[in-house]
Design a protein that fits this description.
Distance between the termini: 22 Å
Structural class: mainly alpha
Largest sheet: 2 strands, antiparallel
Number of domains: 1
Helix content: 40-55%
Strand order of the largest sheet: 1-2
Radius of gyration: 16 Å
Order of helices and strands: EEHHHH
Strand content: 5-15%
Length: 115
């Protein structure tokens, strides 16, 4: 089960907009380790999205032993087909980039966790 919560960071402090909703949702989760991903909610240029995308792939490359290009090809072949009619990051709109990033970490976790 996924939950998304809006938050702000100001002066180095993180604040959930509705901490009660966050606290209420915790009982849905089983005990264990979880990944928390923060995404800045601003419009980025295509180039900025691409740079962020390849930074994320670089981190996953360090953990998986695959190159960024190998990860990118796998994502295009498996995830892009599920999400888009496009196969190039240069063709993605800001909305599509947001959709990609909301699905990217889950896709990679399912692909490589416990391997």
């Amino acid at each position: 089960m996924r939950h998304y919560y809006r938050a702000t960071v100001k002066d180095g402090k993180f604040k959930l907009r509705n901490s009660q909703a966050f606290n209420d949702s915790i009982h849905y989760y089983q005990d264990g380790n979880y990944l928390v991903a923060l995404y800045r909610m601003t419009d980025k240029t295509t180039r900025e999205w691409q740079q962020l995308y390849f930074v994320v792939l670089g981190e996953w490359s360090n953990d998986t032993g695959l190159t960024k290009d190998e990860l990118h090809d796998m994502i295009k072949a498996e995830l892009f087909d599920e999400l888009f009619d496009k196969v190039s990051t240069t063709d993605l709109t800001n909305k599509e980039w947001n959709v990609l990033f909301l699905n990217l970490e889950n896709f990679l976790l399912l692909k490589f966790e416990n391997k």
